[in-house]
């Protein structure tokens, strides 16, 4: 049975006992409302470590003033049942006051990564992500932490974070888990109505086809323009952004000479969806 803890002190005591016994620990940070993609992260953590900690914390610092912090789906009982079935060893469920006590003022920012792509439309978002992840790493002191590639910009920011701050934790990226029609799994997909859900299924189809053409040598500007047109016709919306970036530093590129990522954000109704697709160098 998974141990449920709500305080940092109990979390540390438990993990230290595992470490004293020579056991390794994987941390899977989540905001709850778990689905199959979260289960894939937990499975990856269990495969690579002796113990798995799953945190559930809807982090207010990564939501903007007009975003969905208050309405973000929360179902603790359901999540705990899923985690029990997944074989998680410990569930960390801190209250907001436990993570951000009165007077808390520290922030972590990585402007080289956070002031682009999603960071343009969501100012402060990645600072909130970096801050809460830094706290979780210091609280849990895991050997590794597991993140999904669906939030690719976030994954690269976390990788840069632990490198810059010399945090001794390996960051494991897990490939995006998708619905049967290709839509990347996300807790926010529940916001989509039937029509939006149907149109959302075209996002991955457009990305995958564009990624293949880019790998085959299609000029980048030409292909991105074609993809914008397809988003307008098939998804019914113009992307907030659609960029081809270096897979490591997320710099926008115009030629595919090394591994790259095609990244998109598009809003359907009130729901903002993101996705990405790997692009291989030509003839690789």
The helix fraction, in percent, is 40-55%
Low-pLDDT sequence parts: none
How many structural domains in the coordinates? Answer: 2
Distance N terminus to C terminus? 46 Å
Main sheet: strands, sense, barrel? 6 strands, parallel
Just give the CATH class of the largest domain: Alpha Beta
Number of helices: 11
Strand order of the largest sheet: 1-4-3-2-5-6
Estimated share of beta-strand residues: 15-25%
Class based on secondary structure composition and strand pairing = alpha/beta
Mean pLDDT: 97
What is the overall shape? Answer: globular
Radius of gyration: 19 Å
Written description of the protein model:
- The protein is 40% helix and 18% strand.
- Strands 1-4-3-2-5-6 form a six-stranded parallel beta sheet, with helices on both faces. The chain has a three-stranded antiparallel beta sheet with strand order 7-8-9, covered by helices on one side.
- With 284 residues, the protein is α/β, with parallel strands linked by helices.
- It folds into two domains: 3-174, HUPs (Rossmann fold), CATH 3.40.50; 187-278, Pantoate-beta-alanine ligase, C-terminal domain (Pantoate--beta-alanine Ligase, Chain: A,domain 2), CATH 3.30.1300.
What's the topology here?
Blueprint: E1 3-5, H1 8-20, E2 25-30, H2 36-48, E3 51-56, H3 76-86, E4 90-92, H4 96-99, H5 111-114, H6 118-121, H7 125-140, E5 144-148, H8 152-164, E6 170-174, H9 194-200, H10 202-215, H11 220-235, E7 241-246, E8 260-268, E9 271-279
Parallel strand pairs: 1-4, 2-3, 2-5, 3-4, 5-6
Antiparallel strand pairs: 7-8, 8-9
């Amino acid at each position: 049975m998974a141990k449920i803890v709500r305080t940092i002190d109990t979390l540390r005591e438990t993990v230290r006992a595992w470490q004293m016994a020579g056991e390794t620990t994987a941390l899977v940070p989540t905001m709850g409302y778990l689905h199959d993609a979260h289960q894939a992260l937990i499975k990856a953590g269990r495969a690579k470590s002796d113990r798995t900690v799953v945190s559930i914390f809807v982090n207010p610092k990564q939501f903007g003033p007009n975003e969905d912090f208050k309405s973000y789906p929360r179902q603790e009982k359901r999540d705990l049942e899923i985690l029990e079935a997944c074989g998680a060893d410990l569930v960390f469920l801190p209250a907001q006051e436990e993570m951000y006590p009165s007077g808390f003022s520290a922030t972590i920012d990585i402007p080289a990564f956070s002031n682009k792509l999603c960071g343009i439309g969501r100012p402060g978002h990645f600072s909130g992500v970096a801050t809460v992840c830094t706290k979780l790493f210091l609280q849990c002191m895991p050997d590794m932490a597991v993140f999904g590639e669906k939030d690719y910009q976030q994954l690269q920011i976390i990788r840069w974070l632990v490198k810059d701050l010399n945090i001794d934790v390996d960051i494991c990226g897990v490939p995006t888990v998708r619905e049967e029609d290709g839509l990347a799994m996300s807790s926010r997909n529940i916001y989509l109505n039937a029509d939006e859900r149907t149109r959302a299924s075209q996002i991955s189809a457009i990305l995958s086809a564009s990624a293949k053409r880019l790998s085959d040598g299609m000029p980048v500007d030409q292909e991105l323009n074609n993809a914008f047109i397809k988003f307008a016709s098939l998804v019914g919306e113009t992307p907030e952004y659609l960029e081809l970036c270096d897979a490591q530093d997320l710099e926008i590129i115009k030629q595919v000479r090394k591994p790259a990522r095609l990244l998109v954000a598009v809003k359907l109704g009130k729901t903002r969806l993101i996705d990405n697709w790997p692009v291989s160098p030509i003839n690789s």
